[in-house]
Amino acid sequence: MRRWRALCAASAMVVVSGAWAVPSLADAGCFDRTTQPYTSVVDSHFHLRPFGGPGIPLTEMGEYWRQTGVRYVNLYGIGQILPVDSPCIYYLDCLGTPVLPSPKNDVENAQDVAQTNVDGVHLTLSMTFPDLANPGGILDQMRQLDSAYPGKFHWMGEVNLMKQALLGNGAQPATLGAIVSWSPFMDELRRRDMPINIHSDLGNDADPLKFLYLMETVLTLYPENKIVWAHMGLSNELKTIDPALHIATLRRVMDQHPNLYLDISWRVLEDSYFSRGPVREQYVPFFDQYSSRVIPGTDFVASRKKDFAVYAEELDVTSRINKYLNDKAFRDIALGQSYFDLLGLPEQAPPVCAA
């Protein structure tokens, strides 16, 4: 474990969205799963900004990543922020307080990256501002960010199509008509080959597939876009779906839409599903089969109320499923090959050592 952690911390440079100078993971030879950690080297779903209150500085987060062996991070803001005069840190603690779409977090992330050295970690900036329910100004806002930070943004999301948890704070879910109106910015994303991570709840415990039609509409209308489905459609509102139904639904949709990828971030997946052996045993063969289209992440929100121990725990919890994957899936997911391929990075994950 020490050797792998040392390797992950060895590069004394910051690498940001487009400058691919991180030494290859494959330079270390094969990866020995019997002695090396199972935690993912990619955190593709990380929120540097909280909904409200102060965040953890990027310099401090850099230390967290180096200590845990994370070398590739997607820097999300949060596209919906609490009012500046609100004392709330987390939206669910203040139901009724509106969360408002804003590019503020994206600008602050870009400024932090421009001013901060994060040794040995490849950072990808993401545009999280889009209000999918009101898409009219998204393309113009993309261009404004590009003008201020040319060539720095290579991802979009996490953006909300249907997030039930935000409905109590005035968030608007996108309608079918709004989805049709996404075409200008989706065309631009396709032109750039830029992935978009969409949070779209599959349903809830009362009706597990209630909102599936929304994501299927997106996939049907925009088949050439690289679309990442956050948390595989699961949420705190959907903790009891029959795994067989969930897997069959994902399998059907992924077979129909080859540009769909799954984000397996957020500890809800482990706590509510993967931690139970009989349930985990249903998901593992699915991940083994579709591993080239599965990417890991923590969904950590860097509020100043948290610290290294919290991040390390979140990384561990969200990585536990890696222990049960076959070697190819482990290389694709835990060692990052699926993420590298999705972003078009030249990096190559190391092969897994033969047993």
From TrEMBL:
SUPFAM superfamilies: Metallo-dependent hydrolases. Pfam families: Amidohydro_2. Residues 1-21 form the signal peptide. Keywords: Hydrolase, Signal. InterPro entries: Amidohydro-rel (IPR006680), Metal_Hydrolase (IPR032466). Gene3D superfamilies: Metal-dependent hydrolases. Residues 181-303 form the Amidohydrolase-related domain. One of its GO terms (molecular function) is hydrolase activity. The keyword DNA repair does not apply. This is Putative TIM-barrel fold metal-dependent hydrolase. It comes from Mycolicibacterium rhodesiae (strain NBB3).
